[in-house]
């Protein structure tokens, strides 16, 4: 493990000075600012506070927001696996398997950092009128118990507020967003291993678009379902779409027994991650490294 973490440590050399990394995090802040605008309007209009992490919950309780936030990872991880001038030396001193495990850990740590920054950015943007107590705010009650939340497309729902506390909800939303982002990162890594550099971005984009296009209304037309059968389409999409698996509000809170629970979604992502890791390990046995036009 010492060799594996040595590879991870070297991958982080110059990480925060990398223009691509800086640009990605700046875009992440801009995206957080744009997505939290809906909550900030309500706070200013009605002069009501929010609980510190509620902006994060409302911002990423929506499928489109989850998709937009994860797409920035296409830029951040476009060069996976990390090839550096030291890579030949690492491969001589270790094995391909250890080197790949180092890439896995590096991707996981960067994805955690990316998700934590999402949480911090949304909280800081609304901190002028927020409080740390573990109680739902007046703003949340307004959005959940009236048509205001629906009109502004803010996914603050009564069933969520009645079933869990803000910080408990934050942990689950964070976990779902992290799992989806990590799965996308592994898709990029495996795509680059199998098809070469930059091809992984195409696989990652396809993975994202697949979840976005799985719309219940589209499936209803394909399967000739009537309006009263839309519930069946909603349940189907909640199970087969990775993007919907990452949306907190589309889970079972004791009201919809057919929808997946939070932990079932985590198992869904875990299975997918194990499959991708296996495919990457399988490819590494015959993977040809290219350095300065030569193969190793």
TrEMBL record:
Keyword field contains Transmembrane: yes
The name this protein goes by in its record: ABC-2 family transporter protein
Keywords: Membrane, Transmembrane, Transmembrane helix
TM helices/strands, residue ranges: 21-43, 55-78, 99-121, 164-190, 202-223, 262-282
